[in-house]
Amino acid sequence: MSAARAIRRRAGTGFVAYLLLVFASAGLLAYPLYVLLGAVGVAGIPFHRLTFRLLKLCALLGLWPLLAYCGSCDRAGWGFAARANPASHAGREWAHGALIGVVTLAAVAVLLLALGVRDLPPRGLPDSGTVVRLLMLSLVSASAVAVIEELWFRGALYSVFAAGWGAVWASTATAVLWSAVHFIRADVPLAEARIGWLSGYTVIAHSFGRFADPAILDSLGALFFAGLLLGLLRHRSGRIAACIGMHSGWVLVIRPLRKLTVVDPDAARAFLVGGYDGVIGLLAGSFFALLAARWWWRARRAPDRYTETDARHVHPPGTRNQRIHISVDGAAVQPAAKDAERQSEAS
Predict the structure, then answer these.
(1) How far apart are CA 69 and CA 84, in angstroms?
(2) If we measure between CA atoms, which residue out of 60, 75, 73, 97 comes closest to residue 295?
(3) What is the three-class DSSP state of 174?
(4) Sequence-separated (6 or more) residues with CB below 8 Å from residue 153
(5) CA-CA distances (angstroms) from residue 79 to 7, 120, 159, 196, 233?
(6) CA distances in angstroms from 192 to 54, 108, 160, 174, listed in the order given
(7) What is the pLDDT of residues 32-78, one digit of tens each?
(8) Which end of the chain is least crowded, N or C, by CB within 10 Å?
């Protein structure tokens, strides 16, 4: 078996095992955790919501063994170190990403307000103190959401996919998964008398119902292009600092916009927003797609820089002491082979 095939096989089996472990453990642990919380006096959490939160927790905790299995459990594998340009400043990348994120969604917000798609509620704006508190809470929420989701998708999962199949596949796969996760919802309450050991699996099985609704396609597509843009940022810098900044910038604009304005379903251009949150839809998706195309074009014009950014190394069976480099297209190249190629070109 070739080195490239061994790496792809290890990444693929690792990811499949990760998914199975996450769903199996969350479904199994939901009921005993529910009983334990009730025994210690922590009541009031609906079982379906507890199961969904446990599912997210298992997904996050499962990232460490996944990366360890794929041989990428280091700072670069988590997206904390830039392989191409270690001297680049993470804080500067974060600020650049945050600025682009805020400007992008602010432009979308202004257009939605100007077109009458969103408008002030009949009661008007709240007092200045309430607005300031809302902005502060939005800042905290945006930071937390961005760090967790980017560590999850553009950090760990991106590294696994890039090691096996290259940066293009990694950016696309993480965009698909990230956009889909937004529509997985455990919104089927269970009666107390029906809750038992298998109830966690019942809740999980009913969490995918929204994918049967074609009304989500505009928001789903917009989130896909947003995820693709974030993947290209990860590809460009080799780490997730810019991704966290851009993601937090988006959330920082979306949260106050949703709280302070409402959607006018009778507006002539109401089709520009989707039903997911009344903001993300065709208009926002167009912005995301244009930005993603711009970054993709820059990556195509500077292939050497981006190839170095996504150089990965993992250790498939039998190659523990060998460093295997993965190019952007996912091809594995042994150092000896690379040296021989260079000598051949020189001669």
Answers:
(1) 24
(2) 97
(3) helix
(4) 174, 177, 178, 227, 230
(5) 19, 40, 8, 39, 11
(6) 19, 44, 40, 37
(7) 999 999 889 887 889 999 999 999 999 999 999 999 999 888 888 99
(8) C
